[in-house]
Amino acid sequence: MTDIQTLMTDLGQRARAAGRLLSQVPGPVKDAALRAAAAAIRQAAPVIAAANAKDMAAGEAKGLTKALLDRLMLNDARIEAMAKGLEDIAALADPVGRVLAEWDRPNGLRIQRVSVPLGVIGIIYESRPNVTADAAALCLKSGNAAILRGGSESYNSSQAIMAALRQGIEAAGLPQNAVQMVPTTDRAAVGVLLTMTDYVDVIVPRGGKSLVARVNAESRIPLFQHLEGICHTYVDGAADVEMARKVVLNAKMRRTGVCGSTETLLVDKRFAALPVLVKDLLDAGCEVRGDAAAQAVDPRVIPAIDEDWRTEYLDSIISVKQVDGVQAAVEHVNRFGSQHTEAIITEDPAAAEAFLNGCDSAIVCWNASTQFADGGEFGMGAEIGISTGRMHARGPVGVEQLCTFKYKVLGSGQTRPG
Which of 83, 102, 262, 291 is deepest in the core (most CB within 10 A)? Predict the structure, then answer.
C-alpha cells in the first residue's frame, strides 16, 4: 500500500502543478494540442488495435458478456471516431473565461461572474477504452488536469491511447502531465485516489453498480455520477404506429450496452399495436419479459417479475408493460427509473408536455430515441458522463459543465464605509 500511496501522491502532485499551468493556457493553444493528439491517435492506430486485441482475447477468456465485449472492442471506425471526437472538441468555443453574468453596483463597482476550470478531475471507468480519449480531451479543453483510472479489462488499450494523447499534447507545447493514467490495475489505487483531497477536486465514476457504490462509500471528494441507466420509452395512445416501431427498435437495439438504451417499454392500453412492437423486438433477437398484456400477444414473451422493472440489462433484453395513460407511465418511471433518460412517442402535445414535465429524469425526449442520451449528439463534442445528480451538472457533462466560476470585482478605488 505504501508504494501505491507514493505512486498516487506523485500523480496528484504532478496533476496539480499541470492544472495550474493549463488553467492559464489560451483557447487556440489547447485546440492545437487536441488536434495534434488526434493526429497522434491516427498514426498510432495499428498500435492501439494490437493492444485492444490483447484486451479482447483476455476478455473472451474471462467470459465477459457480449455487451461488455462490445464496449471493449476498438475497430478502425471506432479509433477514427476517437480522433474525430478530439477535433470536434477542439472546434467548440473555449468554456474558460466566459463572463456568465455582470452588473454594476450603485457605488460604481462592476461585478462579473466568470467561468474557470474546476482544477484536477479524477475519472474512474471500466471497460470502454474510448473514454480515455473523450475524458482527457474534455478536461484539456476546459483547462482541467486529469487523472484517469481505466478498468483492468481495457488496460492495454487505454495505455496505448494515453501514450498517443500525451505525445500530441507535448508536441503542442503543453505539459504532458495535464493528462495522466494510473499505471496499475491494483484496486488499492482507486481507494487512494478517492481520498486525495489535496490534489483532486472532482471524481467522475463511469461504470456499473459495484463501482459507483464503492466510490459513493469511500470518496472524500465531490462526485459527478450516475448509478445506472434504467431508461424508459412510453408509447402513448396517440402515437404514430410506424414512428413508434422505428423509435422503439432503435432505442433498445441500436447498441444494447450503452447507458441510454431503453430497458423498459411502457405502452398505453389505448395503443392498439402492442403486438407489432413486441414482434419487432422478438424478431430482432431481443428477449422480451412482459406483463400479462405483453405475454398475451406472443408465446415467446417471458413473464416479467418485479425485479425486471428495476433492472439495467445492458443486453438484448427488455421489459414490457401496458399502462393506463401518461400519468401511469410517469408514475412507473419515477418509481422504478434511475433519473437518466426517458422518451414519449405521441402526436398529442398535451400528453408530451405531461410526460416531459412529470418525469424526474436528467433527459426527457419527445418522439426521439433514448439513444440520443450522449454529449456528442447534444452538440457538446463529447461528454465525460451522464450525471443524474442535482448539484452543479445534470445530464451530459461536457466542457461547460467541467467549469465552475469565480467573481471579479472591478473598482476605481472604492472603499467600504464603516
Answer: 262
Percent pLDDT > 70 in the chain is: 99
Q: Which three cell numbers stand for residue 39?
A: 493526429
Does a structural domain hold residue 386?
no
For residues 378, 151, 258, 327, the Cα torsion angle rounded to the nearest 10 degrees is -90
Q: What is the residue whose three cell numbers read 404514430?
A: 240
20-29, 75-84, 379-388: range with lowest mean pLDDT: 379-388
* Integer Cα distance of 113 and 409 in angstroms: 9
Segments forming the whole domain that contains residue 291 = 231-372
Q: pLDDT band at 210, cuts 50/70/90?
A: confident
Q: pLDDT digit string (tens) for 346-371?
A: 999 999 999 999 999 999 999 999 99
CA-to-CA distance for 183 and 164, rounded, in angstroms? 15
Residue 132 lies in a domain: yes
- Residue 380 within a domain: no
Alpha-carbon distance of 195 to 9, in angstroms, equals: 10
Residues 92 and 198 in one domain: yes
Walk across the sheet containing 403-410 and list its strands. Answer: 99-104, 110-117, 403-410
The 10s digit of each residue's pLDDT in 104-114 is 999 999 999 99
Where b means 16+ CB within 10 Å and e means fewer, 262-287 reads bbbbbbbeebebbebbbbbbbeeebe
What's the Rg (C-alpha) of the chain?
23
Q: Both 346 and 209 in a single domain?
A: no
| Same-domain status, 9 and 60 | yes
Round to whole Å and give the CA distance between 281 and 315. 13
Measured CA to CA, the distance from residue 167 to residue 42 in angstroms comes to 12
The structure's pTM equals 0.83
- 417 in a domain, yes or no? no
